Amino acid sequence: MKLAIFGGMFDPPHFGHLTLAERTLSILKADRMLFVPAASHPMKSEVGHSNAQDRFAMTSLAVKDHPLFSVSDIEINRPGVSYTVDTLEEIRKQYNPETIFLCIGADNAASFHKWHRPERIVELCNIVVWKRSSDLVITSLFTDQMIMLDTPLIDVSSTQIRQLVHSGKSIEGLVPDAVREYIVEHSLYR
After folding, report:
1. Which of 88, 70, 73 is CA-nearest to residue 32?
2. In what order do the strands lie in the sheet with 99-105?
3. Residue 44 DSSP code
């Protein structure tokens, strides 16, 4: 099995995430996309954001109708700091894939050499970098070990969605209906 991994906050998950995942599966000819919501983001405060359980629930709702998508709570359930290398080691044990593709944004690729144990990460998986522009040049100690994918700029972001909800505006068409209903039902981002 060829397994692609899409980690992130997913606060909330939106159609941009789903479109990117679909296109990535198609390009890589991977068998499955595993969404891995992060337990917490070290650079963001919790104010205005949802907790890990809500983000896991929303991500599960967002992917439930896609047969090649699934969600893992591996990072949410791990106590303490969660490192990508630990997640990859656990995924390799749980799923025993032939190939792992770790999908990251260009911003993360530029700082990849600063991640915890980047040498081990490249042993465990293929790093796939989503670039939003073919003109973008990424320099990293590990650039020659990265697969670059040009991806379309999808004009939606989780930040934008949180701001719309906070302002009492509609997010219809930006997130799956089940995610929108969850946000309303749980009074998120208000």
Report:
1. 70
2. 69-71, 32-37, 2-8, 99-105, 126-131, 146-150
3. S
Q: What is the DSSP letter of 144?
A: G
3-class SS at 84?
helix
Q: What is the pLDDT of residues 158-186, one digit of tens each?
A: 999 999 999 999 999 999 999 999 999 99
Evaluate the omega torsion of the peptide bond into residue 152 and state whether it is cis, within 30 degrees of 0. Answer: no
Burial class (CB within 10 angstroms; exposed 0-12, middle 13-18, buried 19+) of 94: exposed
126 touches 107 (CB < 8 A)? no
Beta bridge partners of 37: 8
> Within 10 A of 134 (CB to CB), how many other CB atoms are there?
7
Nearest residue to 57 via CA among 13, 17, 87: 13
Which amino acid would we find at residue 21? A
**CA–CA dist 146, 109 (Å, integer):** 9
Summarised one tens digit per residue, pLDDT across range 105-155 is: 888 888 899 999 999 999 999 999 998 765 556 666 677 889 988 877 678
pLDDT of the residue at 137: 63
Which residue is it, tokens 């996309």? 33
Instruction: Report the amino acid identity of residue 118.
Output: P
